[in-house]
Amino acid sequence: MIYKKIKDDILYAGINDCDRLIFDELIPLDNGTSYNSYLVKGSDKIALIDTMYPKFTQEYIKSFDENNINKIDYVIANHGEQDHSGSIPAILEKFPDAKVVTNQVCANNLKEMLLIPDEKIITIKNGDEISLGNKTLKFMISPGVHWPDTMFTYIKEDNIIFTCDFLGAHYIFDDVFAVPSKELEKSAKKYFAEIMMPFSNVCRKYVKQVRDLNVEMILPSHGPIHKNPNYILDLYEDWAAEKGKNLVLLPYVSMYHSTEEMIDYLGKKLEEKGISNIKYDMVDGNLGDLAIALVDATTIVLGTSMVLAGPHPAAFNTVYLASILRPKVKIASFIGSYGWGGNLFGKMAEMLQPLKLDIIEPILVKGKAKPDDYLKIDKMAEEIYKKHKELELI
Length: 394
Ligand code: FEO
Fold this sequence. Notes:
By secondary structure, this protein is α/β, with parallel strands linked by helices. 35% of the residues lie in helices and 26% in strands. The protein starts with a strand and ends with a helix. Strand 19, helix 11 (346-351) and strand 20 form a beta-alpha-beta unit. It has two domains: 2-239, Metallo-beta-lactamase, Chain A; 248-390, Flavodoxin domain (Rossmann fold), CATH 3.40.50. It is elongated. Strands 1-2-5-6-7-8-9 form a seven-stranded mixed β-sheet. Strands 15, 16, 17, 18, 19, 20 and 21 form a seven-stranded mixed β-sheet that branches. Bound molecules: MU-OXO-diiron (FEO). MU-OXO-diiron (FEO) binds at residues 79, 81, 83-84, 146, 165, 222.
């Protein structure tokens, strides 16, 4: 456990989970993650903002005694997911007079998922306040980043905001304050891709809302605290923007290199036209790198070999991930190679339908690409160039 004074009567009480290698059993983590909770000591009452991932409940509860915390009046639940709410039942057991303060949607989640009794919950509405004496907690209900139950807690007197998952990162630290670095940016971007990107339009709204408050500090429930709020707000603004970059993502799987050779050729042609591209190996690649590339790409051209009568399963996995992460991609196509037949692209195009993409005519080749096929790839590169130009990316 790390206990650290953030400012007068506000303490960080969290943990670095250095051993966590993957989050949601989906995206590999480079740096583990932290679960942050915060103690706010007012002149009359003490509030705990968010709690702890269940695996660490015992250690967390013990730390209250070790740090002479013998009273908690309010447990503020900014979000019902268990990495933040999982220790609430143990907190209520240790501090029987404590009440959970949250919005109606989160209250319903806590009752159903953690069996928190009704009488232990104070339900607040957007804009409601609770006084701790010399500190006032104001609640800003913020559905969609990333559950329907999420809210932020703002301390008026300190002008600081607790944003739970929003503006967070899977990152560990010795000091709890953010030190800008490429590593932190990468972790925060990967976190954004998996957790926030499907709700980019909502993110844009809350980035503005938090920016307009002109807060002194942003205190998320994963990753470091931001004393320079514009650092993370600027990053989120860029990542959540409606328009992608002049970038083509080239995920591929290739059994006999025929597909890979075509993807490499397309990458070279795009490069010649001044279009950046990222090649991604769908079998050996790190899903986190794919997620990061999806944040910026405007176009995806997916290359796949035929396995039996359809695309390689790794291609399906990528297409499914892209369809649920809802990136800002606008244009897509496919390149593939087969041996004896089947339907290579139909089901994948169907899966991408919710993204309403502009699909460029796919290229399908038996075995290795021939001169005519390379001419088709030249044409595909030219089409991508024209479309990027129309979108004013070039
Ligand atoms: Fe970090 Fe949505 O929980």
